[in-house]
Amino acid sequence: MNNSTSAPLLRVENLVKHFSIQKSFFRRDTAVVHAVDGLNFELAAGETMALVGESGCGKSTVGRLVLRLLEASSGKVWFDGEDLMSLSPAQMRGRRRELQMIFQDPYSSLNPRMTVEQTLTEPLALHGLARGRHRERAAELLDLVGLAPQYLQRYPHEFSGGQRQRIGIARALAVEPRLIVCDEPVSALDVSIQAQVVNLLQDLQRRLGLSYIFIAHDLAVVKHIASHVAVMYLGQMVEYADKKSLFAQPRHPYTQALLSAIPLPEPGLQRHRILLQGDVPNPINPPSGCRFRTRCPHARARCAEEVPALTLEDGHSVACHFWKEIAVPAALLPDANLLPPNLRLHKLQAAFQPGGVAAANVKIYPKTITEQQQKRASE
User: Strands across the sheet with 236-242, in order?
Assistant: First the structure.
């Protein structure tokens, strides 16, 4: 599902993971959790693919399956042309240098009994890197993520949440990876710290040519960092597209509901909120046909009888029988440019720009709607 002409760095084919929770007397599975069912996607070098969806949809499981931290029930994961599922444990350990992970909780993912220097030099020792200069390399890594070398002898409890997450990022970068799975790396942080960490990840991507699988449920963060977005529901992918296409024209009803839940930062804007009825079905016994049909306002008889295929049209993939008949609500993504100018808000924003109070005293004349539309069209 990647339109690039070059070979993708990562390719996932029919990835499946079922967790057995009950066995019969003959040790056969009688009840399984359908965590991931038939996922397919590609990721090019230097790009970021975001995996979004509600809690429990299988996002984090996909990240662990890609890195083989969990063994898949079936499917293939190709990294740089090599099938990771066919590698022996010894071969996989050699590959792990190129595949790293940033965990959600920046505190529990760090060993509280190890200093920052020990945390950063352990992967160097395991992979035989920077021999004889481990301390210097650890200081370089801290500088790379915006922390001072004096922190090397400190322990995790002596840092704030944002600083601990920077240490987790430095640990992932220690072995010079090519792909990093970011498992909700900012969800446990304050909003201001989230912006710092996301900007750091983008800066590192530009400087080092990294590829990210960015797992999140905050679509505002995803819009800022991702190049492509995959939407998951109950273990299956329901929509996949580049960021601009998905946010401008979401085709699946579930994606439309997710986008309608994004808070609006502009006072006065009104959004058509799509409220889904009921709860997510039990993954042990998922619904027949389309798994979203029990909560979909557009469900019909066909949805219960036939599983919708993920079909590609104009570079945009969607798994819905009737997506062409579902109109995107006009107020789903309201345009702030169509509002009259908020002079008080503009003055407040101008006060924090270079020029300070002087800039805030400059009169602001509203642009016409036609000028705004021409500007967006040229972009």
Answer: 99-102, 179-183, 211-216, 48-52, 228-233, 236-242, 316-318, 311-313
